[in-house]
User: Which sequence fits this backbone?
């Protein structure tokens, strides 16, 4: 919807000759905040990678114990150990930064007053801990 | 303390130049001067041909937004002393067409602001005889932050999305839409949501967050957009679950 600069600019009488600075392909290197933003966006590739490995694991599980054993052996290779460690760290970074943004998007008002950011954050982290503990409990149950 | 400081100002004179160039002026340094004072010194004493907008000199009118050393700033609230030893680079706001020197054209923003209907919408106006629409301090508090916007457009200049997608409604207009949504007297939220949840609305925002950082009035437009996304998503789920239309 933005007005396009026409290929053949012609001067309209009494109309200002505007200058439009084109946005450089390297706009994201112009300041540190933009660079940080683009890097954060790019590292979400690791989140996708984690999801794919998980799907692969489920597929191996469906194909029986042999297939699953093979999958586990492959995961023990140095390549996957490194990849998974890096991916895990980035998933952690994304989870934490995502959680830290929640008070921005969630505005709760209780009896007319805004619930402070730290309460919303705290509740999210608490829910995360409880769910993680529940998963650990289910996994370790004999 | 230096006695002078160099001010590198972007000049664009459409009758002479095809693109902006920097012109440097040596101006006296004074501790109590802001960049706008320096520009006015240039205009009054050194070069009367320099064009820029300003009015109130106290962060209320929103006219004097420019880029100072690459960051969008209100020049009336930006002290020279924070940029020593200089040179201090002053340029027009990014992503808006430059009319002349430091003056940009704001038509695009004004058009978008009108699109989001930034006024109180009532399904049915009550007659004057019934008096005004009352509001409690808590109800005022719910939207007051967003109502502080002075349309200075630093947030647009800080938003790379607006640069890359010129159709994007943008931070200030969406924050102002939210200002009316949160107003207890307003009944137009559904009408506005239809507009801001279109292609050029809230979903263009990828939460770079710079709009909030540069906002001189602490409006937090990035927060407004994320809150709007949550509302948009909730309404969408509601429309799936209650297709007969509960709104």
Assistant:
């Amino acid at each position: 919807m933005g007005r396009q600069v026409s290929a053949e600019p012609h001067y309209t009488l009494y109309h200002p000759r505007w200058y439009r600075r084109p946005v450089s392909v390297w706009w994201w290197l112009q300041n540190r905040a933009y660079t940080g933003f683009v890097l954060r966006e790019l590292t979400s590739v690791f989140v996708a990678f984690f999801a794919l490995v998980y799907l692969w694991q489920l597929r191996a599980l469906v194909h029986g114990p042999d297939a699953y054993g093979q999958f586990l052996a492959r995961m023990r290779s140095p390549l996957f150990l490194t990849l998974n460690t890096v991916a895990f760290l980035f998933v952690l970074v994304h989870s934490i930064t995502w959680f830290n943004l929640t008070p921005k998007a969630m505005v709760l008002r209780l009896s007319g007053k805004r619930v402070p950011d730290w309460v919303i954050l705290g509740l999210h982290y608490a829910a995360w801990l409880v769910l993680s503990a529940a998963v650990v409990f289910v996994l370790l149950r004999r | 303390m230096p006695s002078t400081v160099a001010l590198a100002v972007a000049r664009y004179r459409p009758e002479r130049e095809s693109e902006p160039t920097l012109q440097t002026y040596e101006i006296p340094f004074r501790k109590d001067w802001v960049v706008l004072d320096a520009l006015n010194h240039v205009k009054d004493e050194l070069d009367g041909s320099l064009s820029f907008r300003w009015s109130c000199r106290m962060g209320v009118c929103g006219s004097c937004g420019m880029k100072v050393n690459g960051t969008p700033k209100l020049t009336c609230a930006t002290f020279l002393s924070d940029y020593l030893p200089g040179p201090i680079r002053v340029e027009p706001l990014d992503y808006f067409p430059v009319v002349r020197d430091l003056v940009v054209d704001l038509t695009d923003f004004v058009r978008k602001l009108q699109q989001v209907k930034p006024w109180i919408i009532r399904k049915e106006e009550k007659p004057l005889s019934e008096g005004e629409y009352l509001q409690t301090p808590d109800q005022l508090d719910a939207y007051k932050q967003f109502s502080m916007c002075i349309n200075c457009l630093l947030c647009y200049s800080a938003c790379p999305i607006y640069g890359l997608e010129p159709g994007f409604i943008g931070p200030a207009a969406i924050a102002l839409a939210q200002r009316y949504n949160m107003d207890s007297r307003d009944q137009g939220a559904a009408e506005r949501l239809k507009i801001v949840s279109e292609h050029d609305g809230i979903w263009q925002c990828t939460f770079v967050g710079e709009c909030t950082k540069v906002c001189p009035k602490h409006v937090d437009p990035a927060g407004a957009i994320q809150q709007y996304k949550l509302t948009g998503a909730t309404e969408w789920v509601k429309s799936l679950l209650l297709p007969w239309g509960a709104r």
